[in-house]
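Cross-posted from the bioinformatics board.
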Amino acid sequence: MSTLALRPFEYFFAQYRRVWRGSAVTSVVTPVVYLLALGVGLGVFVDRSAELPGGISYLEFVAPGLLAGTMMQIATFESSWPVLSAIKWDRQYLAMLATPLRVGDVLLGHQAWVAARLTMIATIYLVVITAFGGVSSPLAILAIPVAVLVGVAFSAPIAAWAAHTETEVSFVAIFRFVILPMFLFSGTFFPISSLPSALEVLAHLTPLWHGVSLCRQLTLGEVELWNALGHLVYLVSFAAVGLALARYTYRKRLVL
Amino acid sequence: MKRFGELVAVDGVDFDLQRGEAFGFLGPNGAGKTSTMRMIGCVSPVTDGTLRVFGLDPGRDGVKIRGRLGVVPQLDTLDMELTVRENIIIYGRYFGLPRRALGARADELLDFVQLTERANDKVEPLSGGMKRRLTIARSLVNDPEVMLLDEPTTGLDPQARHVVWDRLYRLKQSGVTLVLTTHYMDEAEQLCDRLVVMDKGKIAAEGSPRELIERYSTREVIELRFENGRPDDFGYWTEGLVSRVESLPDRVLLYTDDGDAAAHGLHERGLVPESVLVRRSTLEDVFLHLTGRSLIE
């Protein structure tokens, strides 16, 4: 990454410092609440009535799903409104582009910041999951970079869209009709083998399913090498194509 | 030249900037001023033709060129939530200036634009004039050789405009080259050593404000207003008294070197308008003469 791209990163960091307290609290409280409700509360019933593959507890099953799913949501948010705002409302991208920074620096700097945020949140998440007993292998530490990659696989294409769209109305639709269904049906809360077969095929195509599967292999310590590599390649491709698209839409929007 | 699809925004604009001068683009909205500024600022590529800034090619050396420019955009791009001082420091970081030096630099610049007292306030509640001054201070953080000011005082009240003009004048005195666009003739007259009048993407005339007035207008102008409609055959009344007549919807302008004498002559011929005002020619008259239209419509 060009050092020029670190400069926009600094801006987003400065902006974040104003809100870090609230954000830090949310980052801890959210996983605690989810794990209490699903891992502990719902888990008691699930463990009593159903057999999960590999004989694991529901808490162990759902924890990596929540981790990957949360990364997706935060990444999508961070690359939708903030990107459009930097173009249209507070126009920070325009301020940056009047200086030596180039469009590529602005894009990479912003995405690097999103990745840094995701790293913070994933780390907190993993600590909370571990405290709840949802982790059974030290390999889980690798779930942090994987979770960040899941995030970038969403934030990059969403940034591409945000730089293309004129209004924010589509963001709400994306959350409601893309992100939420993915969150619920990508193997996060139950194995996708329980889905009707057509939906199961569809679930296989979502980057979230690949992310959840890979995170789960790592937190359970049951990594199938080739399978894991497949997930990784899928996620990296999503992120790479997203970045290329974003580069294109950013340039189109910002260099008139 | 700058084309947006079918629209030719800037066409055959030819000019040279001298170091240390204040150079203006005067023209109505849509004349191509902003497009020209964006090309000089290396944010907008040139569709056709040659542009050199500091002798460098914006297409290749944009990073280098922008490092030596100070840009004041038409719409502020300040961060509303950061403090006044932080806005300058962060902007300085975009130029890669060391954080340690930037604190002192920010204080110095805030002093220059008289915002020291607001240094630690957020930007949001500042008045329009203060925000503009902050934008100017911010654009100076890299000690630019050339400042690009796109309509620096549009939307400000008269008092705030004078404060901005005063600061810009001092910058010019200290050797900074100013390039500005405006649709205010008084701004162009106050600040510019040399200017081009732009209309529909082309340069209509070039020179110092005084030269332009001498070349395209008369020394004085008589403005006549009529309450009950103006006389039909105006040429008959003004014959031999004035050199040119410009008929606008709300008033008639008569161009002459001696306004009082001509006004007296009209009175003797029995023409009785509702009001008669004799004034000096301005760039507005130059523009009217060159394009047949007013600057601000």
